[in-house]
Write a structure and sequence with these properties.
Blueprint: E1 2-6, H1 11-22, E2 26-31, E3 46-49, H2 52-60, E4 67-70, H3 77-82, H4 84-105, E5 109-115, H5 138-157, E6 160-166, E7 168-170, H6 186-195, E8 201-204, E9 216-217, E10 219-221, H7 222-235, E11 241-246, E12 252-253, H8 254-265, E13 271-274, E14 283-284, H9 289-295, H10 303-316
Helix pairs in contact: 1-7, 2-4, 4-5, 6-8, 6-10, 8-10
The structure holds uridine-5'-diphosphate-4-deoxy-4-fluoro-alpha-D-galactose.
Uridine-5'-diphosphate-4-deoxy-4-fluoro-alpha-D-galactose binds next to helix 6 and strand 8.
Length: about 325
């Protein structure tokens, strides 16, 4: 297939681009390089530098694309609370420009990076796709609005769309890994501390109603997450919008993650207790039963493999 990957210079977009190329597809990456890296775009993919608003119509027009995988987004929860307008403009506004460009060009399939943040504070665990969506920040709200737009484009324009709601993505896939200028995520921060690059790891809250008092999250290896995109692409059906959670179905605490990092790196990682981080739910765990049953997907990598691959990637740079 001929595929457009928006945000293919970013962490997850670059991993999925590599997997699509490995599977024999033709890949064009559209990325404005505002947070992505040119050298993360895998060899064999063509990079077009630009925003969706400026360039999606030009790239898609008359070029015979079969589908779009849409990763390009702003994705920091904290930043979204400080600059909600930026998140609505970049995430929803640019996605609408992409959808119109697809419609004009007659491209009928899309796989979209949605997020666990669309659910907000969960009512019950594990979270099902049918659970209420009450995002607690503009990042989650803007992604939920795109899911809603996709459903409308499916119903009214016959688009075939799949939204994949990611939980906590970690690990690396060969040359492609996590390289954020501002790193807020737990695993890369703990590994930087193991390298001796960062300060001590701060545990954000040890008084949650969980077994060890720290937050439980559902970690998923980026290569397992990526495979789900290839399955979703095949499953896009005209006029249908489907939502699938993507997680492992089990929760690991912040303290457990740090212990796995200590074991994998063999290093002493300095840790200090800190206050809770605003907006963190105690437990976020996905039910991934729907994607297992419908698309036959299941995760193949455990937390040790995620940490190990992230550690190899970090040291290679
Ligand atoms: N944490 C620490 N110290 C750190 C970094 C994180 O204790 O230095 C804790 C957090 O408080 C949280 C857990 O580690 O309990 C995981 O935090 P991350 O920042 O790695 O991930 P989040 O669960 O906050 O965020 C993820 C995705 C978001 C998505 C969100 C859904 O990265 O994109 O899940 O709610 F929005």
């Amino acid at each position: 297939m001929k595929l457009l990957v928006t945000g293919g210079a970013g962490y997850i977009g670059s991993v999925v681009s590599a997997q699509l190329l490995e599977a024999g597809h033709e890949v064009v990456v559209l990325d404005d390089l505002s947070t992505g890296h040119e050298d993360a775009v895998p060899e064999g993919a063509r990079l077009v530098r630009g925003t969706l608003r400026e360039s999606a119509a030009d790239v898609l027009g008359g070029a015979g694309f079969d589908a779009v995988l849409h990763f390009a987004a702003k994705s920091l929860v904290g930043e979204s609370v400080e600059k909600p307008g930026l998140y609505w403009d970049k995430n929803l506004g640019e996605s609408l420009a992409l959808l119109e460009a697809m419609r004009t060009a007659g491209v009928g399939r899309i796989v979209f990076s949605s997020t666990a943040a669309t659910y907000g504070e969960p009512e019950s665990t594990p979270i099902l796709e049918t659970d209420p969506t009450r995002p607690t920040n503009p990042y989650g709200a803007s992604k939920l609005a795109i899911d809603t737009a996709l459903a409308e484009y499916a119903r009214l324009h016959g688009l075939g769309g799949v939204s994949l709601r990611y939980f906590n993505v970690a690990g690396a896939h060969g040359r492609q890994g996590e390289r954020h200028a501002v790193e807020t995520h737990l695993i890369p921060n703990v590994l930087r501390a193991a390298l001796g690059e960062g300060a001590a790891v701060r545990v954000f809250g040890e008084d949650y109603p969980t077994p060890d008092g720290t937050c439980l999250r559902d970690y998923i290896h980026v290569a397992d997450l990526g495979r789900a995109h290839l399955l979703a692409l095949e499953a896009c059906a005209p006029g249908v919008h489907e939502i699938f959670n993507l997680g492992s179905g089990t929760g690991n605490s912040v303290r457990e993650v740090i212990e796995v990092c200590r074991t994998v790196t063999g290093r002493d990682i300095p840790v200090e207790a800190g206050p809770r981080r605003a907006g963190d739910p105690a437990v976020l765990v996905a039910s991934s039963e729907k994607i297992r049953a419908r698309l036959g997907w299941k995760p193949e990598h455990d937390l040790t493999a995620m940490v190990s691959d992230a550690w190899t990637f970090l040291r290679s740079r």
